[in-house]
Structures are given as C-alpha cells and as structure tokens.
Design a protein that fits this description.
This protein is of the alpha/beta class. It has one domain (about 5-160, about 195-240, about 280-305): 3-Layer(aba) Sandwich (Rossmann fold), CATH 3.40.50. It has helices at about 10-15, 25-30, 45-60, 80-90, 90-95, 120-135, 145-155, 200-205, 240-250, 280-295, and strands at about 5, 20-25, 35-40, 65-70, 90, 100-105, 135-140, 160-170, 185-195, 210-215, 220-225, 230.
C-alpha cells in the first residue's frame, strides 16, 4: 500500500532504499481516489525510528494511505528534535473534529508507572474515547495495548518479576479470523516489557477474543470481535537490531539486563540477531489494513459511529 507522507520526512530515504513504495504529497494529489486515512499516536521516545518501523509495515500494497502523526500536548518529547515534531506532528486539538479509517497507538516506556501516574494519561483517555466514534479500527501496540485494555475494559496490567525480552513463539488460536489469515500455526514476535495481562482477565469479556498465545510471553494478540479494536502486546514493528540496542543501552546504564531470549545466535551478543518475525509482522499489518480498514470503513468516513 503506497504510503503518502511528506517528502522531507527522514523515513522517506530509508524506505525508498528498501524498495518500500512511498508516495509524496505531490504525487498523491494527482490521484482521483479516496485514500485511507491513518493517524499514528507515537508515544515512543525515539520517534523517528518508530515512524520508519511502522511506515515500513504500512507500505507496499495497491491502495493509497495518507499518514498523519499525533503527539501529546501534555508531554514534551525529550529524545526527538522539536523542529521535527513541529514539522510532522499534530496535536489532538487539531484533529479531534476529523474521522480516520485507522489509528495506531504505540508503546511507551512508562509501564512500571500506574496508568493514572503517567503525565499524559488524561489526554490519552480522551483520545481513546474519541477513537471509538472517530476511527473505524484502532491498533494498539505493547504498552498502548495494555493502556487500551485497561481504559476500554478495565483489564489490569501485572508487573513481572523480571523483564520479558526476546523473540517468542506464539500459537494461533483462531486460524479463521481475518487478522490471522495466512499466518502459520506457530509464529514469532518480539517482546520487550515488564508488564502484561492475564489470560483469565481477558476471557471475562465476551466482546474480546484472544487470537494468539505464547507459553513464555502469555497473551499476545487480542481482538474486539467487531474488528474495531486490536491489541498486540508485542512489538511486530521492531527492526532486527532493536532489542540489541535496548540490551546494550541498559548494559551501559549498569542495569545488568538479561540477554534477550531466542535472539542472539547461541546467546552470543557479538553475533547478528536472527530476524524471524518480519514476514508475519507484514502479514498482520496487511490483514488489518485490508480486512478491517479498507474493506469495512464506510466511504464517507464522517458516518463512522461508536
């Protein structure tokens, strides 16, 4: 799906070098079709890296997708230049009167805080409440998934004794679900988190369905049965080196992290990690875009209702 993004966004050159179909604003304006509108609430600290990772997964299909980025007014990003934020990001006040085919809410490095202690929690709740009536399908990732499950369904997060870090195998529970169409019975997904949700807590809600589980990582993908919300507790968007960078960063801080599981060959941190989740990550995003955004969103997106 060609993604329509500003021509001067840093991700453009990287994606074009990887043969990902990127469409600039100028070319998009010459096409007489209604593009899909996707808004990304990027809560990750390294925003340019996350932008590139997500755009990579949203690219290379036959439909045009217009991308917008959203930032929090109640939180100032310390790891991304403000000129980048000013050039490419909007505030909620600027978009709250619009409708979108799809939305992505990313993870954030705040999982050890209680949700209500996060400085932008009230604003995030307002955005999640808005998404129910202004966005057709919302994809929540990692902490964003835990926040969404807590806000929408009251499902609590649980703090682990040690950080869950690595690439874990998952089994598909419903192979006939459109999001899992084409996914192998067992697939891999990176995780990097200190908290998670219990299977039994999710199962209490009849509107939710667990689509995949991991013996080591637990609940990994949850769907609202009408397709309007999805919650992925891992990081399908991660690059080959992302877990390695996190590991070495923590090592430099003196945290003494454990080596991410099933990641470095022979647990040798000098060796290049094996990437075994790329195909399924692309498939998950393509299935979401196709079956729950493109094929279901009304042509007049202003008619979206909760």
């Amino acid at each position: 799906m060609p993604i329509n993004i500003p021509g001067n966004l840093p991700a453009v050159k990287i994606l074009e070098a990887e043969n990902v179909f990127v469409m600039t604003d100028e070319r998009a304006k010459s096409q007489d079709i209604r593009p899909l509108k996707i808004i990304i609430l990027n809560l990750m600290p390294t925003k340019i890296v996350t932008e590139t990772q997500l755009l990579r997964l949203l690219g290379n299909s036959p439909l045009q997708v217009n991308i917008e980025f959203l930032q929090m007014a109640s939180h100032i990003s310390k790891n991304t230049p403000q000129d980048h934020m000013s050039a490419f990001y909007k505030y909620f006040e600027e978009v709250k009167n619009y409708h979108y085919d799809g939305m992505i809410i990313t993870g954030a490095p705040v999982e050890l805080l209680n949700f209500e202690e996060v400085d932008y929690w009230e604003e995030l709740c307002e955005i999640m409440r808005w998404s129910r009536r202004n966005v057709y399908s919302t994809l929540h990732i990692c902490w964003g998934a835990q926040a969404g499950l807590y806000y929408h369904y009251g499902i609590p997060k649980n703090i682990y004794d040690e950080k869950l870090s690595g690439v874990f195998s998952h089994r598909v529970l419903n192979a006939r679900h459109p999001l899992m169409r084409g996914v192998d019975d067992v697939f891999y997904l990176p995780h990097s988190r200190n908290t998670g949700v219990k299977t039994t807590d999710v199962q209490k809600h009849e509107r939710l369905e667990i689509l995949s589980l991991s013996d080591e990582a637990g609940v990994s993908i949850v769907a609202k049965k009408n397709g309007r919300q999805f919650f992925i507790l891992g990081h399908p968007e991660y690059d080959r080196e992302t877990l390695a960078k996190e590991f070495f960063r923590d090592l430099d801080k003196g945290i003494e992290p454990k080596i991410p599981k099933n990641y470095f060959p022979e647990d040798n941190t000098d060796k290049t990690p094996v990437m075994r989740w790329k195909a399924h990550a692309n498939l998950l995003f393509m299935n979401w875009l196709n079956y729950y955004v493109y094929q279901n969103t009304p042509y007049d997106i202003s008619s979206i209702k909760e």
